[in-house]
C-alpha cells in the first residue's frame, strides 16, 4: 500500500506543475489581451481629443468672424446715421478704438467710444474680460463726388494657433441725401 500511495503522490505532483504551467500561460494571454485593449482605448481617446481640439479651434475662429462682422456693421450704421458735415470732416483713413483698457485711450473722428469693451468705464465678469477682441479696425471715408462717399471698413485680427492674420473688409456707399431722398 505504501507503493500505491507513493505513486499517487507522484501523479499528483506531476499534475500540479502542469496545471500551474497552464494557468501561467492563461495569465500571460490575459496580460497581452489587457495591453491590446489599453492600446486600442488610448488610440480612441487620442482621436477623440484631437477632434475636440479641432472643434474648439473652429468655434474660436467662428466667434472672431462674428465679432468682426458685428463691428463692421456697427461702423456702417454709425456712418449712415452721421450728418454729412461730420463725415466730410472725417475723410481719410482712421484706426478706431476697439477696447478701452486705460483712461488715456480715446477713439477718433465721430466715434470716440470703444467699439467692444470699455474696461475703464465699465466692469465686466472675468469671462467677458477674457473675450477681448484682439484685432484692429480701420475706417476709410472717400469722397467720390456728386454727394456720395465710399466707406470701407477693414477689421483684422490674429489667426488662431499661428494661422496668420484674418481680415474682413466691408464697403458701402453713403449718399448726402440719404437712401430715401
What does this structure look like?
The chain is of the alpha+beta class and 181 residues long. It is built from three helices and four strands, in the order H-H-E-H-E-E-E. It has helices at 2-81, 84-89, 126-130; strands at 92-96, 136-145, 148-158, 165-175. Strand 2 (136-145) and strand 3 (148-158) form a beta hairpin. The protein starts with a helix and ends in a 6-residue tail after the last strand.
For the largest beta-sheet, the strand count, sense and barrel status come to: 4 strands, antiparallel
Structural class: alpha+beta
* Average pLDDT taken over every residue: 78
User: N- to C-terminal separation?
Assistant: 127 Å
- Quaternary state, please? single chain
Please mark out the parts with pLDDT under 50 across 5 or more consecutive residues, or reply none: none
Number of strands: 4
Which percent range fits the helix content? 40-55%
SSE order and pairing:
Blueprint: H1 2-81, H2 84-89, E1 92-96, H3 126-130, E2 136-145, E3 148-158, E4 165-175
Antiparallel strand pairs: 1-2, 2-3, 3-4
Offer a concise description of the structure:
The protein is α+β, with helices and mostly antiparallel strands and 181 residues long.
Question: Which features does this protein show?
Answer:
4-stranded antiparallel β-sheet; alpha+beta; 181 residues; 3 helices
Amino acid at each position: 500500500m505504501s507503493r500505491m500511495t507513493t505513486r499517487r503522490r507522484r501523479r499528483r505532483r506531476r499534475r500540479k506543475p502542469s496545471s500551474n504551467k497552464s494557468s501561467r500561460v492563461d495569465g500571460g494571454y490575459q496580460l497581452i489581451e489587457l495591453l491590446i485593449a489599453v492600446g486600442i482605448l488610448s488610440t480612441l481617446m487620442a482621436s477623440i481629443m484631437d477632434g475636440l481640439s479641432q472643434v474648439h479651434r473652429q468655434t474660436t475662429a467662428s466667434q472672431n468672424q462674428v465679432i468682426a462682422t458685428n463691428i463692421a456693421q456697427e461702423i456702417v450704421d454709425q456712418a449712415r446715421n452721421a450728418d454729412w458735415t461730420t463725415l466730410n470732416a472725417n475723410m481719410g483713413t482712421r484706426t478706431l478704438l476697439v477696447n478701452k483698457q486705460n483712461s488715456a485711450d480715446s477713439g477718433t473722428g465721430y466715434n470716440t467710444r470703444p467699439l467692444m469693451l470699455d474696461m475703464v468705464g465699465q466692469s465686466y465678469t472675468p469671462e467677458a474680460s477674457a473675450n477681448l477682441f484682439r484685432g484692429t479696425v480701420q475706417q476709410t471715408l472717400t469722397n467720390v463726388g456728386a454727394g456720395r462717399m465710399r466707406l470701407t471698413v477693414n477689421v483684422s485680427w490674429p489667426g488662431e494657433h499661428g494661422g496668420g492674420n484674418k481680415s474682413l473688409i466691408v464697403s458701402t456707399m453713403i449718399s448726402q441725401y440719404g437712401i430715401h431722398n
